[in-house]
Design a protein that fits this description.
Chain lengths: 421, 421
């Protein structure tokens, strides 16, 4: 028994629902549930292992209209809905006939996560992290971030009545700073780039024992929140798995967790365990996983990001190797697209389906197009694209590309002239 | 029989669900369902009259997770879900204990309409307008707007595959212009103020027979979409009416329609018809209805708006007199608050409940506070505040008021110093 097991031993009986242990993804070593993220044996990443019981479609459908309907599949306390949290999830799954036609995909759906409380999928992972962190004894919610995560952490902490500490590079856009600061937590601007901020967060996580850095020391719990995207897609399709799903890749965690969710649903008999293919989407300016996929290697070489898709700009993605495992195992692929293609795809999505996505959504749509053209995505299979964030947060991506059709004086004749011109 | 009845007679049998006729709010005269908005007898405003049948809680609960679960209570075709639309609604109703404590209200809930597709309640009214307009034979969706409505119309038309024509004052903020333009419809910037744009829209509505101006020639249908806010509040409270509701007042339509919804639910036996009180909220810089309420008159005198709450800045509110009727009948009131109070309230809401509202939400929260302090709002009654739009669209309201707590170098010691400072 390693010393980590002893030090992590809970002083009370933890209620983290069906979660049973933390298990190393590399060596399989297991430790009791605790605020740990690295295997004491091999330093591999830890993830949550479960004993599921009594999970049925009927109980899920009778549950809250949020991710908490899946509480019996998440590492959260049984009484999770009794504490204030942000209740994200159960966002729209939209049948997208016009976009499907434009991309050459016959049956296409969009999972529109812009409807979450702070308008990105980060509300899902933060809500799960907050619920687990409360049970693990933390009292402060923290993160390093450049945008969506900062918004989600500050909002969830405010709602819960917790203190938040959010670390950002001081050069961040004013809009993102303001939307984080309005929630009233502690917002620390750091004179450095995101890598500096991230390193600082890791140091602080080791020093401040009351602070749950959602994406550092409680990352195993946090990451499980992305499973809810997979559960919702399956439930909203009428309790079945799609044939194909295209997912943006930043750290890669989301892609692996949607795959985990599909696998769990099949094993639990909640859906037929039909085959599905998982595809990853990256911006060419930060495409280490797509590069490794194309080269047929298992090694993801870090890159220095240079893309407008800043929410995906992680040059050294922690879950990159697991993304490669998943897409290869399911006969998928990882594609990448240029910033110009991203801007085009944001507009295509808005014009065909009325959904205004951030740059990550543009990456996903543009990669889907490319994967159809290359023959890797099957145009006849039921296909779902994950739209994980909101265009209002990355307005600069479309500025200069869209604007009024015409400017006229107050005359109906001028309006008609503008319309026919 | 007036000539309007003849000219409006449909050439086919219209399916607008339970809608039976258009009825004049002033004289009670009725005409067949058509694209009319003014009474042919007295020029009073027309609204939809219904014959409801077979509406039960069970059927509603088994319906779509959007406003279309209430299709049997709306003027939309029976097959409304078969055509692409934006599926707004069923947004969160959040129990707000911390904000309640701050305001002195024991049991408080927030209806958070920032979760709608374009992040305001306008998606509700536009979705209903689009569905009715399709049945009425229109092919173009249009509006004059300064913001939220422009976003909602352009997005819904894109999703439906319709052309949109949106008229805006050319001085509108770039963010609002871009978020409308990205959906790809026709966006006409007019060299004039909103009153000029509105007059131009009314002229065009009379000339262009294929254009459904959602808030002009199909306004009776459009306005009914706000009823869904009332239905959802009641369903989400467990099929009961709140004791009090506070609603922002622009044209005043939303307030009267929530009242209409509560009345319908009671008459249909879907809830106990318990007494409720309706309160209106305005910004002092545009408070013609609050002024009339305070003066005890029925006459709403137009004003020239001067407030940061631009989405409420209608100086001559069409439904002002009906707002006065409703609040007086239900023993409510109309309050108004300064722009400084609005900015404070936006921050209070964000800091207590993690919800970032636009200025209209700040008006509602600040008015609730004022109404408690004046003794008009009962601190012991179940109270609901409608949060109808998103803070990301009015970032300028909080700019200069919020920002980083501290700026530090990359040292944990400096972070700790900043935290203790």
């Amino acid at each position: 028994m390693s010393s980590a097991v002893t030090s992590a031993a809970p002083t009370k009986t933890l209620d983290l629902g069906p979660a049973r242990a933390l298990s190393c993804r590399e060596c399989g070593h297991q430790i009791p549930l605790a605020a740990e993220f690295a295997c004491p044996e091999c330093f591999g990443p830890l993830e949550v292992a479960y004993d599921f019981a009594g999970v049925t479609r009927e109980r899920i459908e009778a549950g809250p209209k949020s991710i908490w309907r899946y509480a019996s599949l998440l590492p959260v306390p049984t009484n999770v809905t009794e504490h204030p949290n942000t209740e994200p999830g159960l966002t729209r799954l939209v049948r997208a006939e016009k976009l499907g036609k434009a991309l050459g995909i016959k049956r296409l759906w969009l999972k529109d996560d812009t409807g979450n409380p702070t308008h990105s999928f980060k509300d899902r992972v933060v809500a799960v992290a907050l619920a687990a962190a409360r049970e693990l004894g933390f009292t402060v919610l923290a993160c390093p971030s450049t945008g969506n995560l900062a918004n989600a952490v500050a909002a969830a902490a405010a709602r819960a009545g917790w203190r938040s500490v959010v670390l950002i590079p001081k050069s961040l856009e004013q809009a993102k700073i303001q939307m984080t600061a309005v929630y009233g937590g502690t917002l620390i601007a750091v004179d450095g780039n995101y890598d500096d901020v991230n390193r600082l967060a890791t140091e602080l996580a080791a020093e401040e024992e009351d602070w749950a850095f959602v994406n550092v020391n409680v990352r195993p719990y946090y990451a499980e929140g992305s499973k809810t995207l997979g559960y919702e897609v399956a439930e909203q399709l009428g309790w079945r798995l799609p044939g194909q799903v295209v997912i943006p890749v930043a750290s890669g965690s989301q892609l692996t967790k949607v795959d985990k969710a599909f696998g769990e649903l099949g094993k639990l008999g909640l859906v037929e365990p039909t085959p599905y293919r998982v595809f990853g989407a990256q911006a060419t300016g930060c495409s280490p996983v797509a590069t490794a996929f194309a080269e047929g290697t298992d090694v993801v070489r870090p890159v220095r990001p240079d893309t407008i898709a800043r929410s995906l700009a992680i040059g050294n993605p922690a879950d990159g190797p697991y993304v490669l495992d998943t897409v290869r195992r399911t006969n998928g692929a990882v594609a990448d697209v240029s910033d110009a293609e991203v801007v085009d795809a944001i507009q295509l999505l808005a014009r065909t389906e009325g959904i205004f996505a951030e740059t990550a959504g543009g990456v996903t749509v543009a990669c889907a197009r490319k994967l159809v053209e290359s023959g890797q995505l099957d145009p006849d299979a039921d296909t779902v694209l994950l739209i994980t964030g909101d265009g209002l947060k990355t307005l600069d991506a479309v500025a200069g590309h869209v604007g009024p059709t015409a400017t006229v004086s107050t005359s109906t004749a001028e309006v008609r002239r503008a319309l026919s011109g």
